[in-house]
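quick one, 337 residues, struct below
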Amino acid sequence: MRTVGDCRKYNLRRKWVPSRDDHALVIRPSRIEDRKLMKRRYSTPEHALAEGQGGPSRLPPRPVGATMLYVASSHGFGLWLLLGLALAVGIYPSGRGNALVPLALGAVLVGPGLLAACAHAAWMPTWHGWRIGKSARPTRDALVALSTCLPVLAVAGLARGDNSFWVTRLAGAALALCSLASLILTAHGDAIRRVPSLDTRLATQLPLSRVVSAAFGGGLWLWMCAAGQDNAVSAGQQLNWIITLLAVTLLRGLIENLRWQSVLLRLPGPRPLLELQPRRFVAALLVYALPCAALLLASVRDVGPVLAAVAAVSCLTGMGIELSLYDGALAALPDDR
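---
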């Protein structure tokens, strides 16, 4: 049984039958046609997705300044990670200055990126994906990175002559966990933001590579702090630290090689030209050769903090070159969406 409303809808949508001489528009009542029109209106064309108009597009390569601040922040969190781990285990040397100097150095490495994002620098618009001051909520990466400041302040307040106090060790464990979580989340989130269609296998390799790289860079900075303080570590402890850093260097070289091979297999074009880039050799020289030479020299003779600082800065510069090359390789990957 039809109601009055149904009759009105039918009258509005009824078929108008024109005369033979009249070319009036024929309006056919069809819900299928309406659904097709709505689908065309709200759906995204495939060519728009391919051009980056309807879906999340890839970000352009980072500027040089943003790349260096990104790597410096990674080294800062790696420094805090190793410091917190040493405090939690109870093997870190006693002394308030021995703990405050690495904490301050980590803040110096992490802070400039946040300050540049707060100043809305054109070459550093976001910090961990967070566009500060643009009525945008902090991302998960930014929240975890900011939460790391709490255990940093706790360790700075609890550090005394003897670092074996259980509360200090608990604060060190919290510092290590927060730094590790920030490194993992930042690596994955940054890769997804830069290349939304990134392969799952490549995305899962990035956190491990970032953690090992941050541990290596942070270890060099921590070695510089220990070398600059009198009687901070004994000769045996220094030798163990050097051997550990050399082992981390070997592990990082293996992981980075596997990561590069995974990307090169997916890149179009001749593979030898992509592998034999001059900047890759320069980055390898700065990241591996110079720091390892400094570590080997420190194992046979007493070196000051200057050589350790040169090794840390060399590693920072080389990792910045590596990151710029890797970002370019990710941007050149074919879109599988």
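Residues 12-27, 30-56 have pLDDT under 50 and may be disordered.
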